[in-house]
Amino acid sequence: MKIERVRRGELGYPPLLGQIPDPPASLWLRGDADATILGEISVAIVGARACSGYGRSAARLLSTGAAEAGAIVVSGLARGIDGEAHRGALAAGGRTVAVLGCGVDRDYPAAHAQLARAIVAGGGLVISEYEPGVEPAPWRFPARNRVIAGLARATVVVEARERSGALITADFALEDGREVLAVPGEITSGLSRGAHGLLRLGATPATCVEDVLEALGLEPRASAAALPDDPASAAVLEALASGAATADGLARATGLASGELAAALALLELAGAVAVDEGVVRSTIAR
Q1: Cβ–Cβ under 8 Å, residues 198 and 48
Q2: Domains along the chain?
């Protein structure tokens, strides 16, 4: 396991991170990739650990699209949205960076040890400001979040409760003068409250991959974002195969409850697979 250190002021220390109010004095890096990838165009994608299926799919869609366009996806290796952000980038053949709140010789959480190995094998890095051997502690994670925000041109919050750690990352991004985006969610879900609070404060709505790429100053590549692979989305696309339909018509055709249908439509819109105009839903997939 290759572990090296890059100090502030040395070649490889990320320039954007050096611009935040309290940059780490040094970073510990685990992986074979050159430290200079930390200076490439990056997006932070963060959110709730106990997320919904909608949140997981949204994180994957956005991270896949960002990685396909050449961005580095940065997140915190946590369960839930963070893990899906890393996986989406890897699925696109892109690179991703995991920022830990402990030493880089630790796999935290242990359940993501294989994911950490995949990140390194995929040309990414596992990094931390804490030297090897440092154990995870609750107070280290908010400090870790400032590094996640500091590395990225923009931070995307997918799902977050009102006191989520993802909102701490968003606050750091705002303090750093970086753009913050939030994915709209179901209005009845507590997982949407944090993201909707950011939207009320002026965050940019992340309704599709293009919204994220615009914040990064990137153009989408030729390959399209992967379609959601959940049963509800598949049922909606099948129902739309014979033509446009209203939400009520889709509910009857698919048998989905209103909340399931709304979540499926939101994911399909994020992927650019459907368009909704004056209550009429149309598939945009060429057949």
Answers
A1: no
A2: 3-216 (3.40.50.450), 231-283 (1.10.10.10)
Question: Do residues 88 and 116 touch, judged by C-beta distance below 8 A?
Answer: no
Render pLDDT for 154-194 as a digit per residue (tens, 0 to 9).
Answer: 999 999 998 889 999 999 999 999 999 999 998 889 999 99
Q: Within a 10 A sphere around the Cβ of 92, how many other Cβ atoms? A: 22
Could you give the residue ranges of the DSSP H alpha helices within the chain? 15-18, 53-68, 81-91, 113-121, 140-151, 165-175, 193-200, 209-216, 231-240, 247-254, 258-270
44's tokens: 């932070």
Pseudo-torsion of CA 66, 154, 44, 42, nearest 10°?
A: 60
Q: Interior CA angle at 155 toward 149 and 157, to 5°? A: 120
DSSP β-bridge partners for residue 204: 181
